[in-house]
Amino acid sequence: MKTLVKVFSAICLFATSFSFAQENVTTTPMKYTDSNKGKFYIYWGGNRGYYTNSDITFRGADYDFTIKDVKAEDRPKGWHVDYINPGRMTIPQTNFRLGYFISDKYNISLGLDHMKYVMRQDQVVDIDGYYPNKGTYGETVLGEPGKVNLTDDFLTFEHTDGLNYINFEINRVDDISKIFGIRNTDKVQINFTEGVGFGVVLPKTNTKLLNKERYDEFHVAGLGASAKAGLNVTFFKHFFVQAELKGGYINMYDVRTTSDKADKAMHNFWFGETVIAFGGIFRL
Prior knowledge:
The chain is mainly β. It has one helix at residues 2-26, and strands spanning 40-51, 54-60, 63-70, 72-73, 94-101, 106-119, 124-130, 140-141, 144-149, 155-175, 188-201, 206-209, 222-235, 239-256, 264-282.
């Protein structure tokens, strides 16, 4: 009988302890920022672009030549109201992304990196190949038959409307708030994010080539792949600013240069971006 009482007492004690533990768990509220699965996010921002030198081939019915080791740069607008002006938002170098968290740490997203690529004018480069009316564009370099000066009359070559990289990404996000001594992440949360992406390049290329008629339409000109890392600071659960370093490779194998479909350019290069974006994160 004493043994039965002891067993019964032990069971009661265990049940009481278990109920108390359960009560403690359930009375500790879960923060909104403790879980990301099922959340959507959207952001808008600006970028600076950086490009490696590239060999660019121009090909048409009466010409086929390659200019080598060509330098190019972006065309930044700086801090400007156009970034938030609905009628002019696509003019600066911008970044847009819409994403969805498939788990607490991983999200998938679709975005547009609107970069600008501008070939530097009046640079002297090596050239191979042939083209009509050689020497009439002010491009020849005295005593250097294998070189040309990239004058405005000979060639202008810009992806300024723009170097549009439409890409799909998969990203990982890690909360590193504890490193900075932050406990209430529903007020301020700091995350480290990294990811990889791939996509198509849809430029509207501005080219003046050998006095031919300019082509001015969007055209799928190539493919790209990229990787990035960034720091995200979220305020009051829903609003964030994100800084990213992004780099990748672009192969443009079919750039329209004139109104004649036979005319095209080809080049490939590595690119880099620095991005500052502002956005929101929420559950539907």
